[in-house]
Write a structure and sequence with these properties.
Layout (H helix, E strand, L loop, with lengths): L8 E7 L8 E6 L2 E5 L15 E4 L2 H5 L4 E5 L5 H4 L2 H5 L6 E3 L1 H13 L8 E3 L5 E4 L2 E7 L8 E7 L2 E5 L17 H10 L3 E3 L15 H13 L4 E5 L5 H13 L3 E5 L1 H12 L10 E2 L12 E5 L9 H6 L12 E5 L8 H13 L3 E3 L11 H11 L3 E2 L6 H13 L14 E5 L4 E6 L4 E5 L2 E2 L4 H13 L1 E8 L6 E10 L8 H20 L5 H20 L4 E8 L1
Helix pairs in contact: 4-8, 6-7, 14-15
Length: 554
């Protein structure tokens, strides 16, 4: 193959940097593109009404002929959540491990995509050829089963993408991380390491998932006479397994609440990743048939999400479960940055209902801390380090760690979403920038809500709206009816009659002024009404509601 100037490996993160979520990265060499992960992120507080945020894949659509496949590291929402939306625009084969494909198929079922998409299950240790790339799946540990790191073999060299991982020598299910394979690939010579930065600021090692199992056993032993409710991430199958183990040991039945939890547990047990003893699992409706001390409830909502099952229980609007002073609620997770307030609110509400809250030692992270990261660096010895998966502070912490582990200062590169990073044996540099960013999903609408609509929503939420309705005669433009003023979210009408009377007079004067000057253009009339009413309300109230004049013609 004749090398031209473009014969460098390009790495293009289209999301997942500057935040935890929306992970998607394209690897491009000449006429081949392979995409790693395709996740979503959850909306910020100021994104009113938005359900999800998915990555902008304009670059992939523009180069669709080159895209050979999506390779998925594991089944978390921030790595697979956007696939149903993306597959409707570009239908590309998907390669992942067994559980990951199972969870993707759950999503595709909801979106009627099962028939139209191609999916292939890959085993750990297996390699696939996509264009000029060969991709090898390497076994790692994480807070969900079947997580993989990827060794991406390109003509320019080997890139190792760790995916989300931790080093767990005693996992609850399956084998430990394949450190031997990392070492073997390291000996071949690795061009670049793209490593998970989530816990790069945390010192020490990440604890094994099994330590949580011991905590659960202790909680069950100490609270033999009360109902136990445990909130955790739906996707943490190992955690669910340990809760089921403890429940079985202490003779309790297990009920599951929360749509995502029911889906994941269903898929995981079907595929053999979750072992549930016979007659342990009961429907939520059957809870009332058992005394409190004989049941445990596994639920979603550990992040304080307003519509999740635990939040509804805490606020007393859950149809089937009411919190009582005899309940023990275990929060088996740590708040994701930004969710602390929501979690604290739920804990307060639960405490007000008299429940006992336990959140000590009930969670271990699914991400590698500093000592685990050092281990990976010492096995792989990469020439370049490109920290991924994390906010800026996480990635800068890993950059420093990479330098500490012997990577040249100039070779530890911080990149942003949209940057095009070009690598060959000698250099690693940002050479271009492509379109990237978040596309907002609201209900069934994808991308139809942009910054302007969001700004309007914020304005409406903060200031309310006033609608001015008037009727004009067709030819003469004489005022026949109105103006009527309708207000929502601005003031309480019954207590503000004087204000609205004055506002009415202001509008009448504005309309009279238009008639007197023979202004016939409706756009101008509306603007004059808007301006005069806005000035009046600002002087009187120091408020700026959205003003919407409506003119009807008879």
């Amino acid at each position: 193959m004749k090398k031209n100037n473009n014969s460098k490996l390009k790495i293009i993160p289209l999301g997942g940097l500057e935040q935890i979520g929306m992970n998607i990265t394209a690897f491009e060499y000449e006429d081949s593109i392979v995409v790693v992960d395709c996740g979503l992120s959850f909306p910020e507080d100021d994104m009113l009404g938005i359900d999800l945020v998915i990555p902008d894949i304009t670059y992939l659509k523009d180069n669709i002929d080159k895209v050979k496949g999506f390779v998925i590291t594991h089944g978390h929402e921030d790595h697979i959540g956007a696939l149903p939306y993306v597959m409707k625009e570009i239908n590309i084969p998907i390669y992942a491990t067994k559980l990951t494909i199972g969870l993707i198929e759950n999503k595709f079922k909801e979106h009627n995509l099962l028939r139209s998409t191609k999916r292939k299950v890959i085993k750990h240790g297996q390699s696939i050829n996509l264009g000029c790339f060969r991709i090898e799946f390497i076994k790692t540990n994480h807070s969900i089963q079947d997580a993989s790191a990827l060794a991406i073999y390109s003509p320019a060299g080997i890139v190792v993408h760790t995916g989300d991982f931790k080093v767990d020598y005693t996992p609850v299910f399956g084998d430990a991380i394949d450190l031997q394979r990392f070492a073997e690939i390291g000996k071949k010579g690795v061009l670049a390491l793209m490593c998970d930065s989530t816990n790069a600021e945390r010192k020490g090692f990440t604890m094994s998932e099994r330590t949580v199992g011991r905590t659960f056993d202790n909680i069950f032993a100490e609270h033999k006479n009360t109902r136990i409710i445990i909130a955790t991430f739906a996707s943490n199958v190992d955690r669910v397994q340990q809760i089921i183990n403890s429940a079985y040991k202490y003779g309790r039945k297990v009920a599951v609440e929360g749509r995502s939890m029911v889906n994941v547990i269903g898929t995981a047990s079907e595929l053999g990743y979750l072992r549930i003893p016979d007659k342990t699992l009961i429907e939520i409706d059957q809870l009332r048939n058992y005394p409190d001390e004989k049941v445990v409830l596994i639920t979603t909502g550990s992040q304080g999400e307003s519509m999740a099952a635990l939040s509804r229980m805490a606020s007393g609007i859950h149809k089937k479960v009411s919190i009582t002073p005899r309940d023990v609620v275990v929060l088996s997770s740590t708040p994701i940055p930004g969710n602390e307030k929501a979690v604290s609110n739920v804990v307060n509400e639960l405490s007000m209902k008299g429940a006992k809250i336990i959140n000590q030692d009930t969670h271990v992270s699914g991400h590698a801390c500093q000592e685990d990261l050092k281990l990976i660096y010492s096995l792989i010895h990469p020439k370049f380090a490109i920290p991924v998966h994390g906010e800026y502070r996480h990635r800068i912490a890993q950059k420093e760690l990479a330098e500490f582990m012997g990577v040249d200062k100039d070779n530890a590169v911080l990149v942003n979403s949209g940057d095009v990073v070009a690598l060959d044996g000698e250099t690693c540099e940002v050479i271009d920038h492509v379109t990237c960013g978040g596309i907002l999903v609201d209900g069934l609408g994808v991308g139809d809500v942009g910054n302007i609509v969001l700004r309007d929503r914020q304005n409406l939420a903060q200031n309310g709206i006033i609608v001015v309705v008037l009727t004009l005669e067709k030819h003469s433009n004489q005022l026949l009816a109105g103006p009527d003023i309708v207000s929502r979210g601005f003031v309480y009408v019954r207590e503000s009659e004087d204000l609205l009377e004055e506002a009415h007079s202001v509008v009448v004067n504005a309309v009279d002024d238009c008639m007197g000057r023979h202004v016939n253009d409706w756009g101008k009339i509306k603007n004059i009404i808007k301006d005069s009413l806005s000035d009046f309300l600002w002087k009187r109230m120091k408020r700026n509601p959205v003003i919407l004049p409506i003119i009807m013609e008879v």
